[in-house]
Structure formats: C-alpha cells, structure tokens
Amino acid sequence: MEGVQVLEVTLQLKPCPFCGSEDISVIDWSTDDENPSYCGWCSLCNTEGPINESKDEAAEAWNKRKIPNVQYAEVLVEWMKDPEFKEEYTALQTIFERLVDKIVEEERKRGS
Ligand SMILES: [Zn+2]
After folding, report:
1. 15 CA to middle of ligand 1, Å?
2. Where are the domains of the chain?
3. What is the pTM of this model?
4. Secondary structure of 10-51 in the HEC alphabet?
5. Residue 88 C-alpha to ligand 1 middle, in angstroms?
C-alpha cells in the first residue's frame, strides 16, 4: 500500500488472523482532518481491521477480530490454488472440500 502512515500504539497487536503475519500496524485511515479514523493493518496480506476513531481502539478492535467461518473457507480455497502446495492439496482435496461444504452449511444454518 502506498503512503501508509504507521502509528505508535501502546497495545501489543496480535498476529493477522488470515495469514499469521506478526507485522501488524495501526494506520491512519482518515480521509480528512475532521474525521480521524484508524485501523489495524497487516502489511503482508493487506487485511484491514475495524475502523475506529482512536488509535488504541483500532488496536483493540484488531486484537478482537475474528474471521467468520465462510471467510476461513474462502481462504482455504485460495490456498488450494497455490501451485507451491499443489501436491499436498491434491492429496487433501477431498477432505478440504468436505470441510468447506460443512462450514458453508453451518453458516447457512446460523444465518437463517
Ligand atoms: Zn495478514
């Protein structure tokens, strides 16, 4: 990301829930000076956390972040396409597919 302004926060930021990177920062997300907004950000996969008015709240919100199961499933599906892990994933594909189906099914049940 271009021009990212990394800010100091007192809270220790937890690793990224998507990629596991520990290179997490709180960044200034403001579009103008009147409405300050901040969010946690993973420099590796570019994931942003919930947006907050204060840096420390943004840090706290990042640390509480949980991924909905459907997003886990989507991440899993993306990983399966990675040629680097092709052999492993081919072997595990059936299991993964069943797992993804199960997750999606569970989410649908909860959603209805
Ligand atoms: Zn990440």
Report:
1. 8
2. 6-64, 69-110
3. 0.58
4. CCCCCCCCCCCCCCEEEEECCCCCCCCCEEEEECCCCCECCC
5. 22
